[in-house]
Amino acid sequence: MGENLRHFETARSQLETTLRQFFQQEKVRKKVGDWVDHKLELNPPTLSYLEGKADYPQIENLALFDQHLSGLELVRKVDSSTVVDLLSSRSWEKQELLRELDHFLDRLGPRFSFEKPFNPPRENLARWCAEQVLRQEISLPQGFTPAEKKLMAECVQPSWVNEASLEKIEQLGLAEECVDRILELLLDGQIPLPARPPAKGLVAAVMELLRPADPESPDALARKVTELYRQHPRMVRIRAKAWLSRLDQLAGVQMAEPLVPLTTLLNSAFEYQWVLVDSLGLALMDVYSEVFQEVWPHWRLERIDYTTVSTETRTESFYRELLKTSLSKSFEKINGLDTLIHNSPSNLIDLAKRARAELEIHCRQLLSKLDVRRPLLVFGDHGFRFSPDGKTFTHGGPSTLERVVPVFRFMSHG
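Above: the chain sequence. Below: its structure as tokens.
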């Protein structure tokens, strides 16, 4: 009995080795991939084999798989337009249609798959519609394929674009490639600059490269940086070097008038309750204003001041500055925004959505710790900016965007 088991174990081991060697062949792996693509069998062991996680697949219909390996066409590919032609050839009674379909399918064999018919791009129609959209400032109709929308980008002429269509460029429904092409023509001087430069949108971002203007106040810097950061993903794609250079210049722009140090302002605001928000940077000013006033209805916003912190823009540096000035007062702290900034890619729109949700949660939690009868001071320990390569948000350096922080003064309604 023991001898028989040893023979059996040896045979089993040899069989598994042979199976592994067979199914490790690239041509066999491709055949199994075709088998799965045809959806003749679909099971976890076979998928694991194709992913390289198993030595061999699990095949249930061995006879059919043997035919597949031998090169027989198991699934016939049929142009779906042939079915459409049949259906549209006349009017049908239900049973008659089913019989005709049965005859039609019999001719295809036991297994078949339908393929979408190839429709060449409607080049002339795409070109004409792109011209009308830009000349008449109307939205692009629905129904164009990605290939047709790409054709529009290739055929755009500068003469089609006017000041009104530039103003509405983001609302016209054009493909990303087409919008990029128009902005490139504008940057290259082939499309005239608008006489009335917009304050927001893609054209405003282009104007910032062609006619840069430095803001002179923190409020103006906040508005400009917020808008430009929102356009960053597209602009860094089409003019990376010039765009990153301009953002770097704006990060360090000097204010027309010197700002009061944060510790000086805090020293004169002991009657307020203090809330410190880590990384309260200028690029999200609209988010802060909306969230604070929505979540804290017991207070009204009196005003927003702007102050400056030390050149080493980190939380530890802020604490050291407090110690130097002998400021001794308890305060609440919100950390979630700083965590988001360190873990977010360079997309301000996405960051703003996440920051809004994070601040709403933390501000609501603070309500139980605050006295609604006393005024409230909300401030940051430092700001943030895009990193020089434009890939992340960062702080810790001496730039203006990192050093200038807002201070929100709220008065109690009670």
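Residues 120-188 form one domain.
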